[in-house]
């Protein structure tokens, strides 16, 4: 049975009808409004429009933030406050007439990579997404780890440096505060001031430096930009080493927008994993770039919707 996956991001809502094999038959996009009422309206419109003319068994919303599964709502979403507290299932399910589940966006993306991407050959996967923030998802013995309330797997908010930079969540020194795209941009702006003769320093005199600028300049050979990505990779590796020790995964897949930098970040991360993780977990874990790109959330959400409607095993709040 086909299912609808909806990826609710900070700037856009992507909804797609997906086959059990992971093929997207149809996809629509709507902007993400930052007021609760219009947000619900646009999610509804996206589901209605994409599902029109298709036979569909269920739908799942992948949403950013800490999810309280039993109440099918997001309690805290630092990058999309409009979604906080809305009874998403209660508001949307009667209107769309399909079973609806809610999942954290990174958990859904992890499930997408597990079913169709970098983790499709294994049973034990750790997925980390590097974007504006850092999200994560853990699959052990083929089951998505959610924890007691559905808020588990928040790998971006593990503390890496107790006195480190402030994180969007309010803590200091989270992995997200040290290795996300936002952190890369911030560190690059600091170093641009210290090294005005670097390509990074010259760009900083014209406009604000963003995370993607750093990747571009690093690829062009700017040493300072390269050092920013390496530093971010080292912090990422400190986090991944901990995850390798805790979860003993076969694959650690890293996705998200910052993975445009690929090996410029991952090489440094792997070195830290080798230094810090312990055998035998260290020897098994393969750290690699996720393969589904920005589609992982939508694909994973659709797969979760289908798994929920067919077996009940993943049905939240049931
Ligand atoms: Zn945090």
Features:
41% helix; binds zinc ion; alpha/beta; 318 residues; five-stranded mixed β-sheet
Can you characterise this structure?
Residues 311-318 have low confidence and may be disordered. With 318 residues, the chain is of the alpha/beta class. It has helices at residues 36-51, 88-96, 105-116, 175-179, 181-194, 199-204, 211-219, 223-247, 263-276, 281-284, 296-311; strands at 2-8, 12-18, 24-31, 56-63, 66-68, 73-76, 100-104, 125-130, 134-140, 143-144, 251-255, 286-289. A hairpin with a 2-residue loop joins strand 9 and strand 10 (143-144). The protein contains eleven helices and twelve strands. Helix 8 (223-247) crosses helix 9 (263-276). Residues 157, 167, 169, 171, 174, 176 line the site of zinc ion.
Relative helix content? 40-55%
N/C terminus separation: 21 Å
Average of per-residue pLDDT values: 93
Present as ligands are: zinc ion
Model regions low in confidence, pLDDT < 50 over at least 5 residues: 311-318
Q: Give the SSE order as H and E letters.
A: EEEHEEEHEHEEEHHHHHEHHEH
Number of strands: 12
Structure classification? alpha/beta
